[in-house]
Amino acid sequence: MGAEKCFDREAPPKVMRYQVLLSLMLSSQTKDQVTSAAMMRLREHGLTVDNILGTEEETLGQLIYPVGFWKSKARYIKQTTAVLKRDYGGDIPKTVAELVKLPGVGPKMAHLIMAIAWQNVSGIGVDTHVHRISNRLKWVKKETKLPEETRRALESWLPRELWSEINWLLVGFGQQTCLPVNPRCSECLNRDICPASRKR
User: Fold this and answer.
1) Within 13 A of 185's CA, how many CA atoms are on the CB side?
2) pLDDT tens, 123-153?
3) Looking at domain 3-117, what is its CATH homologous superfamily?
């Protein structure tokens, strides 16, 4: 049910890419089931650049509620959609540098958008789960404080053909097993090779 599953695969390419962008914007700090439900409501409403531009921010908020930070996200979606219409002919940017200039889009999201919407693996999408687990497994030479540091550290040794897999492998693992607080080390299949498990 992740963001990569929430868009309409039958939509025209521009619309599909726009829906990928919005699904990732909604997914931040939000459970997959909640993001998926919000995307279904948006798609039923009509999830195109022109339709969202014509939708009041308050209505948009009602459609995406209860995603995390829904008020801010409704505002970001309106602002970003206006930029896409004005500067990109209703499509989304093709580079990470341009994507991160959009309201509500950070580096992690930009790399995931590039991979899903443009089939261009530009970098590893490092969110809180990838960041935490990479540090616990000692996949970084020295502990990193910020996700961007973790991204650079992982990209320095991980073969590029595996970059697109890391996020979706570790997010579910981080949500279910390798939790931020009280990780389920006793149930984890990695417990024998995980330095953090041995400490517990």
Assistant:
1) 16
2) 999 999 999 999 999 999 999 999 999 999 9
3) Hypothetical protein; domain 2 (1.10.340.30)
